[in-house]
Each structure stands twice: as structure tokens, then as C-alpha cells.
Design goal:
mainly beta, 16-stranded antiparallel sheet, two-stranded antiparallel ribbon, 20 strands
């Protein structure tokens, strides 16, 4: 027994080590069945139910290895040689781009059990070059036109994966891939409220992660326009936040979600 700082930790998706991971965590659960009966003396008790687990890792890469709905073997190492591993399914990607703060673009990858989790030997060492992308100068484009003075954006892409625990699961919860969905928000300064997007409108959105590459979502619908107004006493610059969601099917047109490499991850 001992204490270890985790400075040599790494995460592996299938056979590939994810680059520039800043941390990972896993939570184990047992779906216990609680009951009270004539012999429990007015107290609660339980029986052990199906085992389940979920986890996440954070990377400074703007394009993580899995996409929501993908199944893979997750391996998390605490020192390069030991840790845990298990079959998993990707639930959600959360990409955050703090342009005004000038911090690095951050991606959180969330996943859940698709098989039993085991602890022990877990070899994963990130021996590649560090990959990080600063958010300074990044932007959002709407229908191919840059949004002036964008200060922040966040993109969340997920899949509504469906859990099951049949007789062949050996008491472990698994999941099947579900419907892909996405939502987003961006914030920009403005001196003309007539240029603010209109709620209910549809558009193609591009979330830039470098000067020339971006996550592309086609189509989208604006659902909320927030923070309109002025702070006189606080002397804050006038801004607005636009929030909405991916609309994969619009009329007779099937849309797409493409990663910064231009690969279609969903749709056409």
C-alpha cells in the first residue's frame, strides 16, 4: 500500500493511447434493490443488483478518439502500468473554447459500462508529442460568415444510449448506441441588437478549433437568445449568448456532424 500522485497516468481507447490527457475518473455502482418487510424490524435493507460503472477523461486534443455511440475498450492507467479496464460506450463529448480567457480548448469525454470492469495490469503511456490548442483567436461561423467578436463557445455532442441487463450479461449493465444529438452555446459582443440571431431560425454552424479547421454542424436551430441588455453600473461590454441544438433532419434534407478533419461522424 502507498500513495501515488498520478503524474504518470494515461488513458487508452481500444489500442490507441489518447493524446494529452489531463485526467480520468471512473465511478463504480451496484444497482441494489432496497426493500423492507416483516422481518426487517421497520428498517431498510437490500440485495445486490446489477453492476454498472461510468467514467470520463479530459484531453486537450480537439478531436478525441471516440464519438458518441462508439463502443471501445477503455483502459485507464494511474502510473503507466496498473489501473483498470473495461468495455465501454461513449455517451458525450463536451468541447469548451474560452476565447477571451485565452485558455486551451478542452474536451471532456464521458462513457458508460458496456461490460465488466477489471483492475490490475493496465499499460498505457503517452509517449507522443503534447497536443494542445489555445482558444485565442478562435471563432464561430454561421452560414459561412464569421460571428464578430465571439468570446466563448461550448459544443456538447451526445448519444442517448440505452441500457439493458439480460440473462447473458452476467449481472453487468450494458448499453446499445442511441440517437445522436447536440447542443451548443456561443457568446459574442455587439453594438447592434438587430444583428443578434433570431430564435427559431436555422443555420449551419462551424466551431473553429484552429485558424482553418472546425467542427461543422448542419443543420441547427436557435432556441434561446440570452443576456440581452446593458450593465450601466458594472460598465460591462454589451453582449449576448445564443443557444440551440442540432437539427439533423430539416424538411427533406439530412444534415451532418463533421469533425475538424472533415470526416462525417453522423449523417451525409
Amino acid at each position: 500500500m502507498g500513495v501515488y500522485s498520478g503524474i504518470g497516468a494515461a488513458a487508452k481507447v481500444a489500442t490507441n493511447v489518447e493524446t494529452t490527457v489531463s485526467g480520468w475518473k471512473v465511478q463504480e455502482m451496484n444497482r441494489a434493490a432496497h426493500y423492507s418487510a416483516s422481518l426487517t424490524g421497520g428498517g431498510d435493507t437490500s440485495t445486490a443488483g446489477n453492476d454498472d460503472w461510468k467514467g470520463w477523461y479530459r484531453t486537450y486534443a480537439h478531436t478525441p478518439l471516440p464519438f458518441p455511440g462508439d463502443t471501445f475498450t477503455f483502459l485507464g492507467s494511474i502510473d503507466g502500468s496498473v489501473g483498470l479496464s473495461g468495455e465501454a460506450i461513449c455517451d458525450r463529448l463536451i468541447l469548451t473554447c474560452p476565447i477571451e480567457a485565452g485558455n486551451n480548448i478542452d474536451c471532456r469525454v464521458e462513457f458508460s459500462s458496456n461490460g465488466a470492469l477489471s483492475k490490475g495490469v493496465a499499460v498505457a503511456v503517452d509517449s507522443g508529442s503534447a497536443v494542445a490548442f489555445n482558444a485565442a483567436g478562435r471563432k464561430v461561423a454561421v452560414n459561412g460568415v464569421d460571428v464578430p467578436d465571439t468570446r466563448f463557445w461550448r459544443l456538447v455532442i451526445g448519444a442517448r444510449n440505452k441500457l439493458y441487463a439480460g440473462s447473458t450479461n452476467a449481472g453487468v449493465v450494458k448499453r446499445t448506441p442511441g440517437v445522436v444529438h447536440a447542443n451548443w452555446v456561443y457568446q459574442a459582443y455587439t453594438d447592434d441588437l438587430t444583428t443578434v440571431p433570431t430564435k427559431g431560425d436555422t443555420a449551419v454552424l462551424q466551431f473553429y478549433v484552429t485558424a482553418s479547421t472546425y467542427w461543422s454542424l448542419y443543420h441547427n436551430r436557435y432556441e434561446q437568445i440570452r443576456e440581452l441588455g446593458a450593465d450601466i453600473e458594472g460598465m460591462e461590454n454589451v453582449l449576448y449568448s445564443a443557444a440551440g441544438s442540432f437539427a439533423g433532419w430539416l424538411g427533406t434534407s439530412l444534415g451532418h456532424i463533421k469533425n475538424p478533419a472533415g470526416a462525417s461522424k453522423w449523417g451525409t
